[in-house]
Fold this protein.
Amino acid sequence: MHIRSLLSQRIEAAFTNLGLSGQALLQTASRPEFGDYQANGVMAAAKRAGKNPREVAQAVIDVTDLDGIASNLAVAGPGFINVTLAPQFIANAATAPQPSPNPQRVVVDYSGPNLAKEMHVGHLRSTIIGDCIARVLESLGHTVIRQNHVGDWGTQFGMLLTFMVEQGATSDSLADLENFYRQAKQRFDTDEDFQGRSRQAVVQLQSGDAAMLVQWQRFIEISMSHCQALYDRLGIDLTNADMDGESSYNDDLKATVDHINGQGLLTESDGAQCIFLDEFKNKEGEVQPVIVQKSDGGYLYSTSDLACLRRRIGDFKADRVLYFVDARQALHFKQVFAVAEAAGISNPSVELAHMPFGTMLGKDNKPFKTREGALVKLSELLDEAIARATKLLQDREVQSKNPDIDDAELADLAEIIGIGAVKYADLSKNRTSDYVFDWDQMLSFDGNTAPYLLYAYSRTRSIFTRGEVDLSALPERVVTENEAERRLAVAIAGYQDLLEQVAQEGYPHQLCAYLYELAGRFTQFYEQCPILTSNYATKTRRLTLTKQTGDVLANGLTLLGIRVAERM
């Protein structure tokens, strides 16, 4: 049930009947006295018609058909319409994600580490944000094609291959390869002869040199093994089958340039093949080129991404292509999308969207690094998160809630809380913003944190344990009878709308904010409404609301990629 859509349609139908034009613009009411939803599009419609907004709002109420949907409509403020939902309508709302009436094929591009190096904190945001949105889309019945566009090609591998051949070095350790890469980079930056040999190695690799490919493939396997171990640890739904390395487009780069040329878009400039589009003018009014082939015949990231789009739109038949890549790449994607449209690679029926995100910062408001100034390795960050969560659980005050927890359960809880806290601290922030990484805040049991929500879920489960409740005997739906029950039920009923919003806009923090609000309403309900000591009918109704709350919390946390625990 899409409550906002339903209310909007009915109110906008009233607009039409009254000869008004505009949208209802439904949003969740900010305070209980405003009802459940608030329509704030009336004032704009009234202004266009040259009429008094409050009078128009009342006229809209008088002709709006919300029989069986709303129990009350009221004019508020300068011309808002407050909507209070009917208890029976709320009761019929689904508590689990329902399939979209218009399922799509959605390519989600996320994570994308550069291989031959360990994953670090800079890879965290793309990985967990993309994973969350992929899960939400799938929960709504969309077909999701995950793509891990890894950096497995180009100059970095030419440097590494050249250095290892020169040194006679071999290793199956990623740490060794990373050390070799650092040394190779130093040589590349200072030694012109080494630069030349490294670039020649890339040419050999791109030309299919058998010996080079064997060595290169070994590097890829070592690196991807490391990445997969981290994905598994983080609970990320990526496998080797989703790997979509730059190398996989090598054979299609020339065909992509030929296709663009066939559209009459290529212009040679200083020997390079360029595309000049009027929308990319600088301050002086000069059109900045999008280069797809260098003067030496080499290709660029833009060429790879255009070849990539040819596959995703042509072969994968995508309706949407979403790129979870940091904000610094905004211009690159604007250019790639514009060229794709101009060259007929894309078409108006396909949505191409760059979903940018900000940077994880330390408490000094600079990019999060070690004291020595190095990027924090992701594996080490997770180790510390689990160690801190273990210490937290071993605290006497916390452990006294469940003194019979054994070592194995405590270790599992520490992993759930530690890794969940790291993920939630990131996902709960607006993805377009930078945020400060703070251990104390993210591991707190108070506020909008993973530990708070995990505890809220376990609290719902503990009620059933204490009351020895048979969950299968509870009814699927109940009609609320007081305000605390009603407000909790309204929050549960809004879950579908929220998921549709997250799926469309790609902001996981909206899901986090919803779950935090739901947990808060459950706390108010729990404090105001006795459950296990009530009479049979009241107890059954309140237990059902408790179960629905727990189900939504568990489902929402799972969509965020966070495991839940039955007790904490």
